[in-house]
Amino acid sequence: MDRNNNVKRLFCLLLTAALLCLQVSVSCADTTTKWNYEYEITEENTARIVRFHGSLERVIIPEELDGYPVTEIGNEAFKLKRAICSVSVPDSVTAIGSQAFSSCDGIEEIRLPKNLKSLGFKAFSNCKGLRSIELPESLEDIGYNPFNLCDNLKDVSFSGENKLYEIRNGALIRKADHCLISWFHAVGTEDSYTVPKDIKIIGENAFCTCQDLKEVTLQEGLEVIEESAFNGCTELTEIILPQSLKLLGNKAFQDCNKLEEVIIPDQLTDLAGNPFTGCSMLTRLVISATHPTLEMRGGVLFNKERNELLCCPQVKTMGEYDGVYDVPEGTEIIGISAFESSRLKRINVPDSVTVIRELAFSYCENLEEISLPDTVTSIGNWAFEYCTSLRSIRIPAGVDTLPTLCLAHNEQMEEVILPEGLKVIGDSAFALAKSLKEINLPEGLETIGAGAFATCVSLKEVAIPDTVTTLGVNVFRGCTSLTAVTLPQDMTILPADTFNSCTNLTDVVLPPRTKTIGDRAFESCYALKEIQLPNRIRTVGEKAFAHCSSLESITFPHSTRQIKKNAFEGCASLMTVIFPDEITSIGSFIFNDCPDDMIIYANEGTVAARHCAENERMVDEENLRNWDGSIWEKVGEAGSDEDDE
User: Choosing a second label site near 519 at 20 to 30 A (CA), which of 140, 194, 454, 596?
Assistant: First the structure.
C-alpha cells in the first residue's frame, strides 16, 4: 500500500459531499456544468475543469466552456475514467493538476497542449495502457513522478529543447538541481538501473512501485533521497548508500520487503523520519561507532543529539522483543513513522518523552496497549491511525491538541480518555472508530474539526461543552447509532452535514442563538420526528432536512428569511408546515416527494404563499391555508421569490 500521501486518505471522502454525476447533452441551469464537464471560474476569469462525467472512449476537451477559455485541468478531474482510450487537450490549457488522469487504465494516446507550463504530481499515475508520450517544450514545472505506475511507458520525449528538464538514461531529470523525478520502465524489461553520476537528488516517488527492480546503483555525488523514492520496490534485495548522501527521506524504502541489511554512511546525519517502514526482512542497520549523530540501541535507530527514536525495524518487533518494547529512558522524541507497521503488542513510553511525531505508531495493527506519560505535550497527525487492535488509550494531561486523523480507523477502539486541558480536536481525529460508544468532551474544549467523529457508528450520545466556539463540517456524519446530542449554547451556525445520515438521531435541541442550518445538516436523519427552530433562524440550507422520513411538522419562526432548494425533499411524514410572512427567498423543490395531503399555513400575498401555490406540485389547493386556518381565495402578489443556487 502506498501510504506516503496520508493526508489524502479517507479523510478527503469524509469531508467532501457527494457530487451530482449526471451526463447531460445541453447546458444545465447550473452554469458550472456543461455537457460532460464540471468546471469553476478562476481568478483570471477562465475555466478550470474539476470533473469529467462522461464515459467516452475518445475525449476532445473543448477550448471554451460557456465562453470561458479552458486553461486548467484540475486535480483528479479525470481520475478513474477507465473507458477513455485517447485524450486531446487544447492548446489553451497551461496547467494539468495532480492526479488529473490517474488510473485511466485505458488511455493509450494523449495529446498535450503546446502551451502547457505545469504538470502536477502523479498526473498520469497508473495509466497502464500508456506506452508513449510527448511532453511540450513549454513545461516549466513538473510535480513528483507524474508517470508513477505507468508500467508500459517506454517512449517519453520533449517536442523540442526544454530549458528546465530533460529525458536521459531512461529518466526525467530536472536540470537545475540535478534531480531525477521519474524513472521510466516497462514491466519485465529492466530489473536493474544505474543512477547517472551527476544526479544529486532522487525525487519523491521517483521509483515508487517499480516491482521488477532488483538492483539499483547509487553513485557517489548523490546527496538526497526524498520521501518514498523507492517505496514498494518489493524485489529490491540490496541497497548501498553512497558516502556523499546527506538526507534520507521518510519511507524512502517503504515495503522493500527483501532488504535485509543497510549500511548508513557517516555523512548521512539527517533522517527525515523512518526510511524503512514495512521492510519486513530488515534485520540489520549498520552504523559506525564514530557516526556523529546516529546510533543503534538494542537494534533500534536513534538520533543521539536529539534523543529521538527514529526507526524500530519491523523484524525486531516480530521476535526479539516478544511483542513488548520498552522505549529507553532518556528518549525525548518518538520520530516520524518510528514504529509504523510494527508488530508489537505493547509499547511502554518513559516519562522522558515529550513529543510524539506524525505517523509514529500508525498501522501498528497488533498494538493492544500503549502507556503515554503526562510529560508528552505534543502528538502529531496520524500518530495512532490504523492501530486496529487498540481498544483503549489515555491522552496525556499535557496535550492540548488532538490532531488530524490521530486516532482514525481504529475499529476496535472502545475507550478514549481525554485530558481536561484539551482545546482542539482536529479534522477526522476519530473518524471510523467504529467501536467507540461514548466520549466525554472536557470543559474548555474550543474546536472540533471537520469529520472529527464521522462514521463512529457505535457512538450513542454526545454532549458538546459550551466552551466550543468552532465546529467543522461533517462532525457526526454517518454516526448511525447516535440518538442524542447537546450543542453549545452560543452556537450560531450549524455547519453543513453535521448530522448527515445519523439515522437514529431523535433528540437534538438547536441553541437559541442559531441563525443558520447548513446544507444537508440533518439529511437522512430517518428517526427525527420533530425539531424546533430557534427564534433567530434566518437561513435553512440546501437539503437541510432532506429524507428525514419521520419528521411530521415544521414551524418557521418570524426571523426566517431564506429556505434553500430541496430543504425538505423526501420527508415522507411531513404533514404540517407553517410559514411566516417575513420569508423573502424560497428555493425550488423544497417539498419534493413530500405527502400530497400535507397542510401548508402561509398568509395570502406572501412570498411563501405564492411559492407554494405556483411551484410545489404536491399540495392540493384546499390544503393551502392562512394562519387562521381559512382556505385561500386567491394567491396575492408578493415580493421577489428568488431561487437560490
Answer: 596
* pLDDT given at position 627: 66
pTM across the whole model: 0.86
3 state DSSP class of 474 = coil
Please enumerate in sequence order all residues whose Cβ is within 8 A of that of 122, keeping only pairs 6 or more positions apart, or say none: 98, 99, 102, 143, 144, 145, 146, 148, 205
Torsion angle of the four alpha carbons 633, 638, 640, 643, in this order, in degrees rounded to the nearest 10: -20
Q: How far apart are CA 267 and CA 252, in angstroms?
A: 17
| Three-state SS letters, 342-364 | CCCCEEECCCCCCEECCCCCCCC
Round to whole Å and give the CA distance between 541 and 490: 20
Sign of CA dihedral 333, 337, 338, 344: positive
pLDDT above 70: percentage of residues in the chain: 88
pLDDT the model gives residue 521? 98
Least confident of 161-175, 279-293, 463-477, 613-627: 613-627
**Which residues does 491 contact at the CB level (< 8 Å), separation at least 6?**
468, 471, 511, 513, 514
Nearest-angstrom CA–CA distance, 97 and 505: 40
Q: What whole-number distance in Å separates Cα of residue 290 and Cα of residue 440?
A: 50
Q: Which CATH number fits domain 31-158: 3.40.1160.10, 3.40.50.360, 3.80.10.10, 1.10.10.60?
A: 3.80.10.10
SS3 14: helix
- Cell numbers at 172, concatenated: 526525467
- Per-residue pLDDT, 55: 83
Q: How many CB atoms lie within 10 A of CB 496?
A: 23
Type of residue at 473? V
Cell matching residue 211: 516491482
Q: What is the pLDDT of residue 480?
A: 98
pLDDT tens figures, 500-540? 999 999 999 999 999 999 999 999 999 999 999 999 999 99
Give me the DSSP letters along 102-171. TT-TT--EEEPPTT--EE-TTTTTT-TT--EEEE-TT--EE-S-TTTT-TT--EEEESS--SSEEEETTE
Which residues pair with residue 348 across a beta bridge? 326, 371
Q: What is the pLDDT of residue 628?
A: 64
Q: Sign of the CA dihedral 295, 300, 304, 309? A: positive
pLDDT 10s digits, 564-607: 999 999 999 999 999 999 999 999 999 999 998 888 888 888 89
Pinpoint the residues of the chain covered by CATH 3.80.10.10: 31-158, 164-284, 490-645
Helix (H, G, I), strand (E, B) or coil at 310: strand
Query: Can you tell me the distance from the alpha carbon of 241 to that of 419, in angstroms, rounded to the nearest whole number?
Result: 44
Q: Which fold has domain 164-284?
A: 3.80.10
Q: Which residues pair with 555 in a beta bridge?
A: 578
- CATH 3.80.10.10 fits domain 490-645: yes
Neighbours of 372 (CB within 10 A): 21
